[in-house]
Specification:
Four copies of one chain form a homotetramer.
Chain A: E1 2-6, E2 14-17, E3 27-37, H1 39-46, H2 49-54, E4 59-60, E5 64-72, H3 74-79, E6 87-90, E7 93-94, H4 100-103, E8 114-115, E9 127-131, E10 135-137, H5 143-146, H6 149-160, E11 169-173, H7 177-188, E12 193-198, H8 201-209, E13 214-217, H9 223-229, E14 236-241, H10 246-255, E15 256-264, E16 272-274, H11 276-281, E17 286-289, H12 297-308, E18 317-322, H13 326-334, E19 340-344
Parallel strand pairs in A: 11-12, 11-14, 12-13, 14-15, 15-17, 18-19
Antiparallel strand pairs in A: 1-2, 1-4, 3-5, 3-9, 3-19, 5-6, 6-10, 7-8
């Protein structure tokens, strides 16, 4: 089969012919229809410090996908939950099931997690093998949406954690694809005001398409001041920090209301100076670090939002490429012109 | 009456004769028996940047106290909850009752809060006037304990917020009086392991007296490594950061388990560099800034802990002085030799 | 002024001329524009067992209203939150502020509560006096909506308690006015499926107007079976029991999913036989009894839902009468032909 | 091996020689040291309506046990969490892992649960086979305690659900073994008052041995009245209903405070008349039905309580028998003279 492979240490990926992976007794072999390209894939392409420390080439890249069940292992079949031909997506974090975090409902934090497309072969390929327990049927959700449920789930986790979205006044800092999904999730969850900020007018346009009541251009707007204006001087109940920039952190602290909450998803590349006294303690703030998707309550609520039509992430998809044009996909992301980019593989 | 007054901008306080304050219709006039000396009082004595920006002399200092109801205003009497002669303590934060935070059960974060001994006349005096709704009967709790329920309440808020104390493995960083109270609160709340760290052996001794299972000397022990050793390599479920030092923050991040919680009470005097990616996001941590006492659920559970004997903060009291020896009280605190220092006023 | 008064023990009410009530120092005198007629008012009119045990005539009836501030007491004015001329509504439960429940954020359960129109003079009058702290500005919410925020708040409390509405599959049993409001609240809060059941086709029509995805006629539909069909055989995450009938309870138990929740608002007039083993314990259900509105978090989220347009309760208003036609208002309610009935008093 | 087998429909059990069960690839074969006898086993012995409807003989009985790992399947060994020779206990509910409840952290409510000693061969035998993922190491907890962690876990679930135990005033209704364990759990969790009631003086003695502050004899004491007396007329924050009698339900409703919580574990054999208006709605109560143990947060906190010495359930163990004296074990339970009865099998 064809697959995008990080062949050896260094930038780029290669489109190679590799064997179709073996389907173990509790696995599902899935023919990939669509796959999403993520910022992580850009780091892997560029072979930055994180990528070179984590990946052990050769490895097939890609962790966001949807496809069709092509084969089921003996035990997976016996479980009776999947059938050959089912349209599915999957949680790409394969966890140990035995550590403290796995035992108490926090398996998204399992320290033995193996991630597809990073620690083991991934989804930029014609086929992928997954443990059947990580696989979920789409049940009518369109496959191209299925292909981006991994990052949409990050947005669901970020917006819902702490229970402040419903009726809440929410500020989304950073309108990359996950920030834009978060706008839609906040609307679906009944937020009464959704404000989105970014430096990039194209991204703000996507945020508006996803339902932002107000968009702010952080180059020219004083975001915390505007957030206070829009909320009778209270500030935001919930800030979703999706930018990963120290300037985003500063904005988050200044925009959050007394007793508010900041859920942080954007991963900074360098430390931020935090004035804990002024910005956290005297404000009574709660901060929460978002890793992945809660397994599987995040998926459950996301499937409901998508199936009911409360949430439709498709306006964020701006580009589609075949597998052989991965270099172009990487380029549009680097150019900052893209929302979500997906690869059309076997649809 | 005699009172310790910050007479004008600048260091020190003066013991003065001032009029007994007027008891308004919804107020209680209280004859003070004991008062606690707090780090805040030290800042006020020294007239640091915070104090000079906040206080408007002349003002009577002191915000931790217990005493006896001497007089009740008309409406306070009609409410029927207090009687002349009752032994009482009081919440020293007087809040507006109308802002968003006051309306939704977060009045400890009211931005119009007026604090006794800071924004209005306080308790280092023979009498103090309080709104009756801030006053609580001791119902058998000893008055010298009543005098330190304000800081003990800070510890209750810090330990209980987030619900991770019961059965939890708790690390207390910083064993000043509130850190030591937190040790006792964690034990009362059913923590399965309470570890306390400090640089000062006398303080570690007080932490042991309050029930710490293990004390660590941060000068010689690798606190995060020891915390992992003591927890089968999981780390702390809950870290109470009571030191306010950047080194305490670093220890807290390193010692907390994946999915753990850090409740921050110690107020730093300068910013801390935070590696949000490594220390918050990938760890799935929750951080929470502690201001004051929740009004009044913190008080309710504290009263129960004290009345049942589950919690006894008295081992932390190391020094007692009369009002006229305030300079000595300040000195023992500055020397780092003291646990909790109380003033004996009218007992 | 004119007022509807329960003059003495027995059925009916009388339209009388009574003195305008006195505005105390911390009160607001409000000129009533609109008032809502509630099932409770019907009980009072009919003088049933509950009414005769509770009311002490003479008393002005009515507890749902909106109007305009006509006068402020000295302290209410000093607080600076209200001005003469403000359009307002009010929480009709006047609580003690001092009991355990008031202290820990559950003042809707204060056992010393005094209710307007029941325990003290109410709102079916040209003027009413309220403690200013119970009064809330409408800030652009239409006054006829303001007049029904009390029962809409009951619906908000019922739907949101326990956090299962967002993304949830919700069954509303009983489509009287509060049931219909609950349909709209569930939609506003991001429920993915809202099913409403009643015996009365007119009420089901109102439920549809408020956004129910599916309405079931309990005379002909097997409600639990249909709920399971609509949810892939899971059952309802949340059941709002608004009927107060034993048959409604039976439906609720059968329709709720394993681990689901039943919030009960409808007050039955007789006991229900409950099979705790089968229906509560083996199903792992949570049941919650709804009294009033949480003070004031329910009001805060309701105001946001109404101000943002996420919730509009006006389709439920079916009849409007002047004060002198109260007998007609009572009659349309008894006939089962009405949704919400409001009195136009001084608009 | 020797095993107690329900050979066919009808009362009693037989001690038989049966083959040692086969250890599958992801299983652990455990040599049983001790096993606990449960009320469920009595129902099975007596062959009551529930038992005859549920069991499909022949089946080895027994679901509470501890023992030593004798053999590990290939995958269980590869997982690296268990070794031959480990002392262990196990969760006896084997769940599907795929249903809604399993996916959202409520697998104790999985409707495909298979229970050892009921739906598949159990632990009253020299050996038992369990899925390795259900097995937990004792890590120093004595094996006779390990043998009763299943019912102790029921008590942990009952006491901790809803977060009202810490600092709470708790009433335990019914002092059978799980009620007595609940007394100890409430003390471990930091309850400020633990009151236990029963009709049987021997059981009240066990409750006192487990740390009850007050025991009430329901034959002579007015339990709700005494509970109000002991709490300044507030009533209980948390009632644990462990009796399963309608009289216990009535007591629970009357003893709970406004806004309190009733967690129900005792499974009644017949319906209870509930006055929802008076007892649930106007009181703002929360009721919760307890099934099994939360998987695995209940186990995690229980292991901590036991390992730290905060909880020691051994005073409740009153009788020990060898496997061949099962009839005697059943008899002491029926006589009401027993606390917890354990079988000594291969220790």
């Amino acid at each position: 089969m064809r697959a995008l492979v990080k062949v050896s240490a260094g930038p780029g990926m290669e489109l190679r012919d590799v064997p179709v992976p073996q389907c173990g007794p509790s696995d599902a072999l899935i023919r990939v229809h669509y796959a999403g390209v993520c910022g992580t894939d850009l780091h892997i392409w560029e072979w930055d410090a994180w990528a070179s420390a984590r990946l052990r080439p050769p490895v097939v890249i890609g962790h966001e996908f949807a496809g069709e069940v092509a084969q089921l292992g003996r035990e997976a079949q016996a479980a009776g939950l999947l059938s050959v031909g089912d349209l599915v997506t999957a949680e790409g974090h394969i966890v140990c099931g035995h550590c403290l975090q796995c035992r108490i409902g926090e398996s998204h934090l399992c320290h033995r997690t193996s991630i597809i497309g990073v620690d083991r072969d991934g989804a930029f390929a014609e086929y992928i093998v997954m443990p059947a327990s990580n696989v979920m049927k789409l049940d009518g959700i369109p496959p191209e949406v299925g292909a981006i449920m991994d990052p949409t789930g990050n947005a669901v986790h970020t917006v819902l954690q702490g229970g402040m979205a419903t009726g809440g006044r929410v500020l989304i800092i950073g309108c990359g694809p996950i920030g834009c999904f978060a706008v839609g999730v906040a609307r679906a969850a009944g937020a009464s005001l959704v404000v989105a900020s970014d430096l990039n007018p194209k991204r703000l346009e996507l945020a508006r398409a996803m339902g932002a009541h107000v968009t702010l251009d952080a180059r020219t707007d004083d975001v915390p001041a505007r957030m206070h204006e829009l909320t009778g001087d209270d500030g935001a109940d919930l800030v979703c920090e999706m930018s990963g920039h120290p300037a985003g952190h500063a904005t988050a602290f200044a925009a959050a209301r007394l007793g508010g909450r900041i859920n942080l998803l954007g991963t900074p590349s360098r430390p931020t100076e935090v004035n804990f006294a002024r910005d956290v303690i005297f404000k009574g703030l709660t901060l929460y670090g978002v890793t992945g998707r809660r397994m599987y309550d995040t998926w459950d609520v996301m499937r409901r939002f998508l199936a009911s039509g409360q949430l439709d992430p498709r306006p964020v998809i701006t580009h589609r490429f075949p597998l052989e044009r991965m270099a172009d996909a990487i380029q549009v992301i680097k150019d900052g012109q893209a929302g979500k980019v997906i690869l059309e593989i076997g649809a």
